[in-house]
Protein: Phospholipid-transporting ATPase
Amino acid sequence: MMETKNPSQNSSKFETFMQNSSSRRNSTREVTFGHSESKAVRYGSRGTTADSEPFSMSQKEISDEDARLIYVDDPDRTNIKFEFAGNSVRTGKYSIFTFLPRNLFEQFHRVAYIYFLIIAILNQLPQLAVFGRGVSILPLAFVLLVTAVKDAYEDWRRHRSDKVENNRFGLVFVNGNFIEKKWKDIRVGEIIKINANEPIPCDFVLLSTSDPTGVAYVQTLNLDGESNLKTRYAKQETQSKFHEKERFIGLIKCEKPNRNIYGFQATMEVDEKRLSLGSSNIVLRGCELKNTNWAVGVAVYCGCETKAMLNNSGAPSKRSRLETQMNSEIIMLSFFLVALCIVTSVCAAVWLKRNKKELNLLPYYRKLDVSKGKEESYQYYGWGVEILFTFLMSVIVFQVMIPISLYISMELVRVGQAYFMIKDSRLYDEATNSRFQCRALNINEDLGQIKYIFSDKTGTLTENKMEFQCASIWGVDYSSGKAGLENEQDEYSLQVDGKVLKPKMKVKVNQELLRLSKNGFANEDGKWIYDFFLALAACNTIVPLVVDTSDPTVKLIDYQGESPDEQALTYAAAAYGFMLIERTSGHIVIDIHGERQRFNVLGLHEFDSDRKRMSVILGCSDNSVKLFVKGADTSMFSVINKSLNTAVIQATETHLQSYSSVGLRTLVIGMRDLNPSEFEQWHFAFEAASTSLIGRAALLRKVATNVENNLCILGATAIEDKLQQGVPESIESLRKAGIKVWVLTGDKQETAISIGYSSKLLTSSMTQIRIKSNNRASCQRDLQDALMTSRKNMAAREVGNYFEGSSDADAVLTPMALIIDGTSLVYILDSKLEEELFELSRRCSVVLCCRVAPLQKAGIVSLVKNRTSDMTLAIGDGANDVSMIQMADVGVGISGQEGRQAVMASDFAMGQFRFLVPLLFVHGHWNYQRLGYMVLYNFYRNAVFVLILFWYVLFTAFTLTTAINEWSSMLYSIIYTAVPTIVVGVLDKDLSKRTLLNNPQLYGAGQREEAYNKKLFWLTMADTLWQSVVVFFAPLFAYWGSTVDVASIGDLWTLSVVILVNLHLAMDVIRWSWITHASIWGSVIATFICVVIIDAIPALRGYWAIFDAAGTALFWLCLLGIQIAALLPRFVVKFVYQYYCPDDIQISREVEKFRTLRVNGGEQTEMLHITNGPQR
Structure:
């Protein structure tokens, strides 16, 4: 490595500090997680600042009881007081002994299962036995068995994975040598060695690495999904001290295990010196060591206490809207079931009173048994007890009114729907080679009812691939030139040992700025240009890696970093001749126009959401110390000395305004020189904050805030983040579907507005309401003024009586767009102004929130979710979107450039924002229509069967005997009718993909709950009542006065109802396939076969009944007549309704059926106007 050409010749105070600072690490991102049990999260709060936390309190030492004490290379002493968790991990839920009780306990959380368990238990009592004791348990046992097998298989896979993980081998330092040891046997306090490309077995603090400066590069892909390499550092005191064959003595005092993967607070005592440890000194389980030959560290958290395992919570559990609504209908059916039982019991009571004198001789209730030649008393328990028994027996007989098969059918249908969503080529992202992911199977149908979409901007609407476009330096605007890329790139290649070294990415450059940067200090602006690009190259956490190419003489420098913005700025600096070529824990090397210069990194304060800026302190070759700062304009102008260079500041503000107006992301660059006393003061405060175990994050923010002041402005940068493919068209389609799209972004207002126009979120015809206030009173005034404006528009709309009969106020005469910033939201959220904001927002077509914090995003979603019954969807790609995604009814994660935190917290995941359109319009619509129909059909299918049993009870002295064979009763919901329901729920399509995509208005059917509502439920029940009457009474009257036995007419009722419900389903199938035909007609055939088999078994009741009954013409005539009479009213009503008052879906279906297909897409069909008025 070449040294700077002007090395310092004198020894100064700065030099001493620089040498001492070689052991100091960069202060890294500290994320503080609140504890919900101690303090409620307030979405509108600004968050804790350094000023709000007393400095003295933050420096209090944490007691030994509240900290974890780890004696390095002494696991016995470390674990003597408290036996810390071993390194064995277990992600499985069950063991061999706990599987049965725990799985059953979890399954019986469903109230319906408890209901059927009670029914089965009642049927075991001799006095109440209606069905065979074994037969009554079959339905519940079948459902429990299927679920248990599925859970057992999933848990077996988890155990298998755990076994592989726990039995891996790692190198552990024992008695001066590294020996192989299974991962599960590693203990806290042991020293571990990791070689290149090996996974990390536990969370350990770095002691030494193969790099002389103590740097290690790790990939956190398995932890947070980010593929970029991260830098971790070993302290210089431990880097130089640790040697094999010698025992390392030290004490680490660290915080207790927690889930924060971005934070770590600890101190290490080595040679009576206390060193501070942060997140840059710990490597977590799940990472891999890259570009480093080896690394040695001491285990601090093992097994279930590692941060990776503590964060292993899986996707959130949510319940669908349809399932919630379904519960109310189940309660209604339960009341109806109780009513049937009460009617039966009351009628039985009356009958017993009237016939109490004849009970000795009546066949069902006789008290005397004379069959054996002598009188024996039957067990007769008295009038009251017999009525109770009748009620309980009624519950057993009519139990199928509550469809137990519905739950497992819904699960199977959702699995089938998820399969087709995953396999849909429209949801496949070629750029990232990622398919659609369905992480929550229980809310598929909610995708068809979305009313609000809350979207992040960067990485969700945009590509999050930053391109440097403009620079404003010392008041002069330098926009990118239009010269050829190849020529520009060749000018910035370096010759190193006969090989060409150049940046991996190409950047457009401004030729004038390029010329000025080459001239150095030869011109007046040379110093500012030099400092500007030095700031871009140095003020970051980028790690430069040398990558081979197909040409052995050419090497590429790949800048790895967590932020795409930092990468873009570093590549831009390289394009202008300031190429970062090396970074270690204590220094960086930058090639400035062919001359390598080394800068000592004395301190680095990374970006945080409170300061909204980052800074680096560099020790230069002339012993000067420079502070470089970059950040958002709102935070930077508050720390810039505005008394200096006023004209430059004003010019820069003008340039920032112009950059933002065209949608560019902007940052402001500033600097100042630190004199010896300022540096010494900062150094002392920084060391104190770094070694504090409590409140370290707040203290470091305070230190950074104190030093980042009185800056001299250097200029500003502008980066373009292009829109993703298809975003404008997608947003336009979503709005046509009646979906309100809200964009929640951390960008400044001008940038967000520009993106809003380019994405067609905002239009020129919209009335924009902007709320940007710095205090509560001003914010309240702005809200009230905006409400007045919206009410005037509303009043103008109501003149035309467009919303006559509706209380909704969603639409206005002129579309309105609300644009509000994060500062205003601080005063609005968690206050009485929330209600006013909600009232205003629901009148607006678009809401654009700027400069919002992650918790504010969740607060905005909560604002809508808690005040309306409309379904909400949140979509984002970064860790800052997780709270929003989890708050919404449906959370969608984008597999983007910012890692996979959003994906891991989401219900569904995909590669592009535009995939929302086919996901919602096609799969969401199909899922909702199918499941809505399936639930109603299951209610109908079971209710018609129960009513047939009820009618029979009325004609048999209320004795709860059944004509239908007990085996047929149990098989009815399992074999006779279950398969067609599932097949139709998975495969049926009311409309084609093409029609649904071309006509977004059709999506409104789900928003209006047209497929499942109380009106449809009661109509279905009315149709059920009619069909049950026909099925029961038609054979009764046909065979009245005949000698047909009960079993024969019971078989007729069984076949009639099975054929009827399958024909009922067939009438509603839209798209037939061979699978649909096979399932429906196959179920009918299977029923015939089962009835024949059951009646052919001599041991069962009704032996040979079907063969006797089916031998007459009357049997088949009744079978045919029942189908016609039962389905005729339904057919007539469907015809009249579809012919005289069709809805959008029926019109579109007819268009699909009869129109002539053309290459250009055929005719356009006018959809009914979407309103939020009463349902049709």
Observations:
- Confidence is low (pLDDT under 50) at residues 1-62, 481-490, 800-812, 1156-1176.
